[in-house]
């Protein structure tokens, strides 16, 4: 009697993240997602992956060296009583009072994982204007993770676009449950983590000591004209981190063995006569361009 051959189950095809050439100066998309799971709207769900939309990989970072040997130093975990400790032997503890800790094991941490650890469930829909900008945090790109889930993904994306709403949901990232906002963008969905209420200080407390005095109408009108002179569209390509640019120039010159000259001190901009300063600014249309030229001259020295 012939036995039935076992047929290996078909592997689900992952959707590769690819696209057109990057805009010049744009950051690289990370090669690996920071989270994988399911996006769920009521009974509709699809497998998705979350990628960071921003990158700081091009930032300059310095290492700490021993000036006598120029060797990079090592950060060794050290017990103040017994000395160095192997990192693999360390455990996590929460300080409940000074020098008193509750020890938590990996298994105990695993036991408190929520459903949102693997599922991003949409809970409600709101207008974008309802979310105070103080609460918007980090952007991410949410993409289908398997070909079988593309249809459901597109349905959710287009429903958000048709209703012009922001979807609110929850997901566990970096050992914390995060509130997230989802909005359609181009062919996909952008996810923003939102800060919780207890993470944002009340602005009224920050501005409490600012006096209620009103400036003169003439000064406000002059300031308004200055704003109108300098208004324009936002093009991120026109803005650069001038401090980091100056650091890179410093590093290149030191690498070539050039003598480093101290930069010019920053000019004192303390305003004595506010009206006179406003009128002078109104006439000085090229202030931003000249300021940029001064920075370039300073970095070349």
Topology:
Blueprint: E1 35-41, E2 44-52, E3 78-79, E4 83-84, E5 92-97, E6 100-104, H1 106-111, E7 119-126, E8 136-144, H2 150-163, E9 166-173, E10 176-185, E11 188-194, H3 203-206, H4 217-230, H5 242-255, H6 274-283, H7 287-300
Parallel strand pairs: 1-7
Antiparallel strand pairs: 1-2, 2-8, 3-4, 5-6, 7-9, 8-11, 9-10, 10-11
Helix pairs in contact: 4-6, 5-7
Could you name the CATH class of the domain at 35-54 and 112-199?
A: Mainly Beta
Instruction: Determine the CATH topology of the domain at 35-54 and 112-199.
Output: Ku70, Chain: A, Domain 2
Structural class based on helices, strands and sheet pairing: alpha+beta
Which stretches are poorly predicted, pLDDT < 50 over at least 5 residues? 1-7
List SSEs in N-to-C order.
EEEEEEHEEHEEEHHHHH
Give the second-level CATH assignment, the architecture of the domain at 35-54 and 112-199. Answer: Beta Barrel
Largest sheet: 7 strands, mixed, barrel
| Order of strands across the main sheet | 1-2-8-11-10-9-7
Radius of gyration, in angstroms, nearest whole number: 28 Å
What does this structure look like?
The protein is α+β, with helices and mostly antiparallel strands and 301 residues long. Among the domains are: 35-54 and 112-199, Ku70, Chain: A, Domain 2 (Beta Barrel), CATH 2.40.290; 214-229 and 239-300, no CATH class. The chain has seven helices and eleven strands. The protein has helices at residues 106-111, 150-163, 203-206, 217-230, 242-255, 274-283, 287-300; strands spanning 35-41, 44-52, 78-79, 83-84, 92-97, 100-104, 119-126, 136-144, 166-173, 176-185, 188-194. Strands 1-2-8-11-10-9-7 form a seven-stranded mixed barrel. Helix 4 (217-230) packs parallel to helix 6 (274-283) and helix 5 (242-255) packs parallel to helix 7. The longest helix is centred in the middle third of the chain and has 14 residues, at 150-163. The radius of gyration is 28 Å and the shape is extended. The N and C termini lie far apart (90 Å). Residues 1-7 have low confidence and may be disordered.
